[in-house]
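Appendix B. Chain record.
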Amino acid sequence: MALIADVFIALLVDPSGQTFASTTLQSGDIDFNVKENEVRGGRGNALQGVLHSDRDISVKMTDSLFRYDWMARQLGQSIVTGAGKAYAMPEWYTASGSSTIKISLPEAPIADTLVIYKADGTLVPKANYTLSNKDVTFTTGVTAGEKVDVRTYQYATSAKTETINIDNSVFAKGTKLILETLEIDNDETPLYKIQYIFESAVPTGNFSIKTASERNGQAQQFDLKVLKPKDSNVIGQVLRIPLT
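Structure tokens predicted for this chain:
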């Protein structure tokens, strides 16, 4: 008696030579769907035959880890590395000082992007403070010990920042897909590696980014559909490799 023991290890090989891999899948499924048309006739409209027209193969994988490169693949994009502009999230600060009242920010705001509110919800006008690198010095309207809400500002990110463009006219391209799992016997002795090789599989581009208030890892979905090669009816192979 043989059993499939483990979830797939997944490997994508791009025509350009790039590779994407995951050894941390939570689940991996291959669905084979054959299109068929029933031929019926005669008394009682009995089934006379079944005509098969096509076979669709779809692959669904759920990864326990977030993979930025897989997100880029689903969007049909490449990751671009270089400085960019980001937004600071809302945060409260307590103004300090005696003759000079100021707050210090974790990043240096880009000019004219800083937005500050007082605790009563009134906007602090830009004329009421000066900006020097990461320091905001209040000239009027804010006193020492007073809390202010820095709603946002833009700042320059480092040259190591990775960016993926979301282009509504660009979609994912095909890639070679290799999936491998393990076959064992009823004594849990490994017998074979089972490897599925699909020459061309295209990511569907459908995915969700889920978060929750409780801090926890969120799985990432990655779905593909297997394509037929232009020059062959063979869309893939299944290898059963003995473990000796």
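Further analysis of this model is presented in Appendix C.
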